[in-house]
Specification:
Belongs to the ABC transporter superfamily. It is found in: Cell membrane. It is a peripheral membrane protein. It contains eleven helices and 14 strands. Helix 3 packs parallel to helix 6 and helix 4 crosses helix 6. The longest helix has 18 residues. It is globular, with a radius of gyration of 21 Å.
Length: about 350
């Protein structure tokens, strides 16, 4: 059984033309790192928060979200408390928004242990100091006495990682944990997350709009557009041969992590803008931005997720998306093209 499992999850808000999430199926196993990628507004953060039972107010929720076998959609207050205090933790993208600015770091790190688990203050402080050392902060005792404004953004994000691990969860939800950091600090934070994930055999769901980051850190990737999963595959297979035009567009508009050995790679942005919640179309939600959309096909009904090799793809033209020759694929990640027709 998967540690985290979404089954046909749908979330709709009153007055909106389309659902926030529409039939999401996604799994994360223990010891696995899974990425959920897509542009801003695609529904990634709502998906992650659902794994803690944090649904938007007045939302109509369908389907199931299970963490270690507990369904968060139907769970009572006791079940939700168990998940949030012992099974799953979340790291948010802005560390300064997730911590009380007038309380010391030690108070933040020990509160859950003292209030929810009955630890003494001394025992909780020892645990907090151990975690600060584990995330690479050089002087845990001093940092426990400091206030958030006395730490840099990178140091504070390390504190947030330590806070997420205080109760030894099995599942870690990371909502764009490096967005507010500079490039060198981003690499440090991802290295820390990777090391802790391996040491503790955590299931980890990484929410990001950076598909290159997903390539470097994750075992599998789910690509989301307008509240739907449009493609999922093992990371290496998805980058070698993306089958959905949106996935190919994300790769084609992202600079490679390493410099290509041949000519510079030309980046090609995806035309248009993502769909808002007040926008709705009868067919493929990406059709208006897709140069390969066919009238009478792509505008008739939403394509279902169907197997194509090792991938699941929601595209009426998935069979027309083919990999480029190996010589080019070796030099750039945006290694796919569509056959016009």
């Amino acid at each position: 059984m998967a540690l985290l499992e979404y089954e046909a999850l749908g979330i709709a808000l009153p007055g909106m033309a389309r659902p926030v999430l529409d039939g999401i199926d996604l799994t994360v196993a223990a010891g696995e790192v899974v990425a959920l990628v897509g542009e801003s507004g695609s529904g990634k953060s709502v998906t992650a928060r659902a794994a803690l039972g944090l649904f938007p107010m007045e939302a109509e929720v369908e389907g199931r979200v299970r963490v270690d076998g507990t369904d968060l959609v139907s769970a009572d207050a006791t079940g939700l408390r168990t998940i949030r205090t012992a099974k799953a933790s979340m790291i948010f993208q802005d560390p300064r928004a997730g911590i009380n600015p007038v309380r010391r770091i030690g108070d933040f790190l020990t509160e859950s242990l003292r209030v929810s688990h009955g630890w003494t203050k001394d025992r909780a402080n020892v645990r907090a100091a151990e975690l600060l050392a584990a995330v690479g902060l050089p002087d845990p005792g001093r940092h426990l006495r400091q206030y958030p404004h006395q730490l840099s953004g990178g140091m504070l994000q390390r504190v947030m990682i330590a806070g997420a691990l205080t109760t030894e969860p099995r599942l870690l939800l990371c909502d764009e944990p490096t967005t507010a950091l500079d490039v060198s600090t981003q690499a440090e934070i991802m290295a820390i997350l990777g090391r802790l994930q391996r040491e503790r055999d955590l299931g980890l769901l990484l929410i990001t709009h950076d598909i290159e980051l997903a390539a470097a850190a994750c075992d599998r990737v789910y690509v989301m557009y307008a509240g739907r999963i449009v493609e999922t595959a093992p990371t290496a297979d998805l980058f070698a041969a993306p089958r959905h035009p949106y996935t190919a567009g994300l790769l084609g508009s992202s600079p490679p992590l390493s410099a290509p050995s041949g000519p510079p790679v030309r980046l090609t942005p995806i035309p248009g803008a993502p769909m808002g919640l007040l926008d709705s179309v009868p067919g493929c939600s990406f059709a208006a931005r897709c140069r390969f959309a066919r009238p009478g096909v792509c505008d008739q009904s939403p394509p279902p997720l169907e197997p194509h090799g090792t991938a699941l793809v929601a595209c009426h033209r998935a069979d027309d998306l083919t990999p480029v020759p190996d010589a080019l694929a070796a030099t750039a990640p945006n290694s796919a093209r569509l056959e016009d027709g």
